[in-house]
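Bench log, entry 3. Co-assembly request; chain sequences pasted below exactly as received.
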Amino acid sequence: MIKATNLSKKYGENTVLNIALLEIPKGQTFGLVGNNGAGKTTFFNLLLDLITPTTGAVVNNGIQVNKSEDWKPFTAAFIDESFLIGYLTPEEYFYFIGELRGMNKADVDTFLKQFSEIFNDEILGKKKYLRDLSKGNQKKAGIVAALIGNPEVIILDEPFANLDPTTQIRLKKILKELTKNSKSTVLISSHDLGHVTEVCERIVVLEKGNIVKDIKTSQETLKELEAHFSV
Amino acid sequence: MIKHFINFEWKQFFRSSYWQKSIAINILMVFFALYFILVFVALGFGMYPMLKKMFPDSDPLIKVNNFVFYWLLADLLIRFFLQKLPVMNVKPLLVLPLKKKRILHYVLSKSAISFFNFFPLFAIIPFGAVLIFKGYASAAVLTWVFLMIIFTLTINFLNFIIEAKSADTELSFLPIILVASGLFAINYFEIASLSTMLSNGIISITENPILILVPIGILIGLYYLNYTILKPKLYIDGSLKAKEQIASSSDLTWTRKFGDIAPFLQLDLKLLWRNKRPKSSIFILVIGLLYGLIFYPNSVYQNMIPMLIFVGIFITGIFMINFGQFIPAWDSGYYKLLMSQNIKYKQYLNSKFSLMFISAIVLFILSIPYVYFGWKILLIHFATAIYNIGVNTHVLLYGGSFNRKKIDLTQRAAFNYQGTGAVQWLIGFPLLIVPVLIFYVPYKFISFEAGIATLIIIGTIGIVLHKKLMNIITKRYLNSKHKMISAFEQS
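Structure output for the full assembly:
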């Protein structure tokens, strides 16, 4: 589904990402782990054509992302709060995203019903703008918006940070279901080793822009990762 | 501790994003500040001879004293809208081992060194100097100057009390306007001559300096009133809480008529209505519409037709100039989202175009009453509206692709130069001057009608070529996409 070849990003002399080859097959839940500055967000930004690569290219479902925009209809992402439009209410935001993904209001409303547990009556129908929501609730809205319209590729940067425990557990369940029957490919990054090992079939560890580990998740993965990161 | 506070103030001032602008704007701002200071100083020095000349029989000082009432009233109004007690800044201090008393005194005394309190000094001190030079008793003049400073500070603290009291109400500016206009009316209709009473008060204080204790007492009283109002509010759910707005929703289904640009049009309308800064561009419409009243009734300008073209471009284009010059910076806060969504740049830009297009037509219709000043005016408005739609919209959109400055929508509107860069200065020329030149050549060599016709024809060509032009503009935006994203990320 996603293939990055010879991909690198440099700022001046400083190489922040350098990936010789990374292939993510369709339907995989893919986890990206690494300390601050390891290049996780840079990789996602390159995937979304938000920054230009210094060398190499990312191909999403056969489409090179910086050459054509045709990857946009089947790709969705939530990187940070700058993906929210602060002066909209959550409903308006969901409808807007839904409309861009070819769903009408009724479709979006039905879609949102399954998240009532996550929303906990704090997001919908509150007559509040997104900018006035708490950080955690903003995040919930952003993640749910990224799931609208059954995208084939879903990219979430640090989805578990700032979320309450109930939502973390629910989100893990949702992410696992998404990749059942290999429908969607899910890419997430996290600092929480427990969560990623639980959700992801495959985990890649980045260190200063380089891939240092590429693990198929098993019983021992968490221990292995903990050993790797405890210096 | 005081040392630290002063140090913080210094850093806050010089490290504020206010200075992180291009040098050109900083120079311009300094220039403006110097200009105002100069005007005030000139006023201070020139007031005495001026008043002496206008009213040879009366004492200039008494004339000035009569005016103090109006000055204080105007000062209070201006401060109410522009000056806010900088109470938000103390949030990080709350959990430090500092007494609340100390924090409050810090906040309040800090407000005393606001530039609102300094500006009048530039006029008051020179005026006092002139008075001494003219042979007034030095002691009396010094008392007078001191009294004026006390008045300024009194207004300073009075304003905060009014703000605190009216902040909870929905139309918070209503009380102050009622009070100010009430006082003005009482004085104006001579129900009670407040200005004379104040003037008499000032005179008796300068004659008996001991009486100055009365205004000082009032000042101290106001200071402590502020203190007691603020003290119980120094909690993060009190006055330190950022204001939350109640979301208002409106039915925008009519935008469906515009087809595939509808979602963006809805977004733009909400952008305009729900954020302070873009909202102000709606209010500027009113000012722009009234702009013609300065020029049209004046027969001097009736003979300066090219000048009227400029006015026409301005009146029918005020919204598009205001809004258009910051495309796409209005969306800078969530530009990454737009760029990773299933969005065609063309639809996005077409929505902006439609908004400007509609504004020009609406403004033309609203400006029709100016026909009272002659049919030529109507013709000028029509031609400039067509030109604005056909040419200026595209110029603005094209210029927008060079925008690299982000706009924080939550920031205040007045005196906000965020997002202003070289583009905004350069684009003024083709927008406002070029149409005047286009008009001027045929006007000079053929006739007024020929000039108007030229503007209409060029505007129409722009409208006919709209699709082609949009393709070119879209390409420009696509090419500068990554530069814009990275520029909008920097604060």
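DSSP finds 21 helices and no strands in chain B. The radius of gyration of chain B is 27 Å.
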